[in-house]
Design goal:
Structural class: alpha/beta
Number of helices: 5
Radius of gyration: 18 Å
Order of helices and strands: HEHEHEHH
Length: 143
């Protein structure tokens, strides 16, 4: 995938990771759920819009509304870039399921899936970030 523009200022970023899916407080309006969903659909329906689909590994892919919405708008995944976050939260029983997604064997996207690796608590306590920065690279595998 390559992107080029003579006017890079006409970019819009919409985070679908936290789509409203329930009334969050007593003062919340249940109609906000559909309002936000429709607003996001308007933006991501534009043919020139790239969709960065950020999916948390804390919850099953099927339970995350952003995935359903992105694939509803772009069923072939031509404009979607998949990004998995929080892989350190994957339970061992679900590891294979997430690995097939990352290898683009399931919920295939033309541009594939990528993973953001964050250190777990034990690694943080051992100054993981400083050591990895000094080495200049991180190795991580779901398999």
């Amino acid at each position: 995938m390559s992107c080029a523009s003579r006017d890079p200022t006409c970019q819009t970023y919409i985070s679908m990771a936290y789509l409203v899916s329930s009334r969050m407080s007593d003062g919340g309006d249940i109609n906000d759920i559909e309002l936000v969903r429709n607003l996001v659909k308007i933006y991501i329906s534009r043919p020139r819009c790239l969709i960065f689909l950020v999916i948390s590994c804390e919850t099953d892919f099927e339970n995350q509304g952003a995935g359903r919405l992105a694939l509803e708008i772009d069923p072939d995944g031509q404009r979607i870039v998949g990004v998995l976050t929080r892989p350190d939260r994957i339970e061992s029983a679900a590891g294979d399921k997430w690995a097939t997604l990352l290898r683009n064997e399931r919920n295939r996207l033309l541009n594939g899936w990528f993973c953001v690796k964050q250190p777990d608590r034990p690694s943080l306590s051992k100054n993981y970030r400083g050591r990895m920065r000094a080495r200049g690279k991180t190795r991580f595998s779901l398999a």
